[in-house]
Specification:
CATH superfamily of chain B: Glutaconate Coenzyme A-transferase
Structural class of chain A: alpha/beta
Helix content of chain B: 10-25%
CATH topology of chain A: Glutaconate Coenzyme A-transferase
Order of helices and strands of chain B: HEHEEHEHEEEEEHEHEEEHEH
Largest interface: A-B, 57 and 61 residues
Strand content of chain A: 15-25%
Number of strands of chain B: 14
Shape of chain B: globular
Shape of chain A: globular
Structural class of chain B: alpha/beta
CATH class of chain B: Alpha Beta
CATH class of chain A: Alpha Beta
Distance between the termini of chain B: 22 Å
Number of helices of chain A: 8
CATH architecture of chain B: 3-Layer(aba) Sandwich
Strand content of chain B: 15-25%
CATH superfamily of chain A: Glutaconate Coenzyme A-transferase
Largest sheet of chain B: 8 strands, mixed
Radius of gyration of chain B: 17 Å
Order of helices and strands of chain A: EHEHEHEHEHEEEEHEEEHH
Distance between the termini of chain A: 20 Å
Helix content of chain A: 25-40%
Oligomer: heterodimer
Strand order of the largest sheet of chain B: 2-1-5-10-11-12-13-14
Number of strands of chain A: 12
Number of domains of chain B: 1
């Protein structure tokens, strides 16, 4: 990863790559375009630590708890610096990845019509069906410089398997120029699982074994979602000083002791 | 995560709503106003249909319906869980139990493109921070977009849920803050600017069929598409509902009163909520 990269961190409430996000903070990356359907705590942390210049997203909140206070502080008060946003619906942003993964310039969907999102957002346009003339929405392909996902397992050849709620990870990975995967466990051989997503090693740039690397999110088969931490983040993130102290104690301290 | 917008419509810096959670409903059934809302919303759901569910009161209502009169209601969550049968209320749309209990788990592009846009979902349940007289919804910002006074979570799945589900039930607290003459941002189209709007925009579903609030139930006029107050919850006066609406509210000539939550409904709801509170 480099400063200025477009980085996708995907994981739809499940398998969120928290450890990778924390490493981005420790490396002090700057000016990132962060793409993520559901910016939640890890995005709040990256934004509050000043890593993000632009956020491409479709729903920014702490699910079931409340606001993302660092995101709101950035948008409402430009702290720690102003950020740009490009916001979509889930379907719209998911289809940006679909187009990127498909090697197409854009994808189409029924969406955006009549909404404020259609008026103000870049990378959305209305197009006519070449066969019927019907108007539909087009969204530009999203091809991140780097996509980062967390998975349950990889084998020693770097083939990756994830299961449970698999979100938009396959599309984010196949759309990206480079892919980094953190896994709960490296195993000798992947056991085939119905409904699992397999990312063969030839679409994976690097794998790092990081047990628990998705906490406080969860990895089906390995861990439970830490709902209590999601609830506690509301108070931690509400105040700038409390937030910075927490990041210093729980994320940056790891960099100093290595 | 489409629809946990009610949580964000009342950040700590604004006064609690008259019908905020925990407030006793005047209905006399011992139910809180939020309980009345969830129970009445659950009655909108019909057995053996498919329902696209958001987190918050919509999820509570849908899970309640499945335990009461609609055991074959298929719950679809935007995390890709189709036919989820959670034993407790999920905190997020991606809780593991939704996937574990589902008939199928598909990707996010698939749930939106094939299942929702493909026309397989009968009803969507949505919350909102603001609603206008045509049941258009705002979950994006309060104030100016470029310099919002409150930044809300955004669209999530709501625009396409409202576009493509056969019909939509909106669940929202009713006050002059939420029921506004003009939305600060149109996140999700309900009935647009009135007759013909959905057809002109190419929206295939029929749009909002009911708005269930803590005060009563509103339904769109079949011709003008404007919301009309159809029923009040027991103990709620018409004056309260009119005062809690930011436009001159139309009232049905045969304005009725909703049936108070029954003992069974309340018991099922409370068991559901209690199971959620016991999460690990």
């Amino acid at each position: 990863m480099h400063d200025g990269d477009c980085v996708a961190l995907e994981g739809f409430t499940h398998l969120i790559p928290f450890a990778a996000g924390h490493e981005i903070v420790r490396q002090g990356r700057r000016d990132l375009t962060l793409a993520r359907l559901t910016p939640d705590i890890v995005s709040d942390q990256l934004i509050g630590m000043g890593c993000v210049r632009k956020l491409v997203f479709s729903w920014g909140g702490n699910p079931g708890v409340g606001s993302l206070h660092r995101l709101r502080d950035a948008l409402e008060h430009s702290w720690p610096h102003p950020i740009e946003i490009e916001e979509h619906s889930h379907a719209g942003l998911a289809n940006r990845y679909v187009a990127g993964a498909s090697g197409l310039p854009f994808a189409i969907l029924r969406g955006y019509a009549g909404t404020g999102l259609a008026a103000g957002v870049t990378n959305v346009a209305e197009v006519a069906c070449p066969f019927t003339g019907e108007r539909v929405s087009a969204v530009a392909a999203l091809n991140p410089d780097v996509s980062i996902v967390h998975a349950q397992q990889a084998d020693r050849e770097g083939n990756v398997q994830l299961w449970g709620i698999t979100g938009v990870q396959k599309e984010a990975v196949l759309a990206a120029r480079r892919t980094l995967v953190t896994v709960e466990e490296v195993v000798d051989a992947l056991e085939p699982r119905p409904g699992a997503t397999v990312l063969p090693s030839f679409v994976v740039t690097a794998v790092a074994e990081v047990p628990g690397g998705t906490r406080p999110s969860y990895a089906t088969g390995y861990s439970e979602r830490d709902d209590a931490f999601y609830a506690s983040w509301d108070a931690i993130s509400r105040d700038r000083r409390t937030f910075l102290d927490w990041m210093d104690a729980h994320v940056l301290a790891g960099a100093r002791t290595r | 995560m489409s629809v946990d917008h009610t949580a964000f419509s009342r950040p700590g810096d604004v006064a609690p709503l008259p019908g905020a959670a925990g407030v006793r409903s005047p209905a006399g059934s011992g139910a809180t106003t939020d309980e009345v809302m969830a129970v009445v919303a659950s009655r909108e759901l019909v057995d053996a249909t498919t329902c696209f569910v958001g987190i918050g009161i919509p999820s509570t209502a849908a899970n309640l319906a499945r335990r009461l009169h609609a055991p074959r209601l298929v719950l679809v969550y935007e995390s890709g869980a189709i036919g989820a049968k959670p034993g407790r209320l999920p905190l997020s749309i991606g809780d593991g139990e939704l996937a574990d209990s589902a008939d199928a788990v598909v990707s996010v592009p698939e749930v939106f493109n094939y299942w929702l846009q493909g026309g397989h979902i009968d009803v969507g349940m949505l919350g909102a921070a603001q609603v206008d007289r045509f049941a258009n919804l705002n979950t994006t910002v309060i104030g100016e977009y470029a310099s919002p006074s409150v930044r809300l979570p955004g669209a999530g799945g709501a625009p396409e849920i409202a576009a493509s589900c056969g019909e939509v039930v909106v669940v929202v607290h009713q006050s002059t803050r939420t029921f506004v003459a003009e939305l600060d941002f149109v996140t999700t189209v309900g009935h647009g600017d009135g007759p013909g709007a959905r057809e002109r925009l190419g929206l295939r579903g029929r749009g909002p069929s009911a708005v269930v609030t803590d005060l009563g139930v509103l339904r769109p006029d079949p011709v003008s598409r404007e919301l009309v107050l159809d029923a009040l919850h027991p103990g709620v006066s018409l004056d309260i509902a009119l005062a809690a609406t930011g436009w001159p509210l139309r009232v049905a000539p045969d304005l009725s009163t909703t049936t108070p939550p029954s003992h069974d409904e309340l018991a099922a709801l409370r068991a559901l909520v209690a199971a959620g509170a016991r999460r690990p």
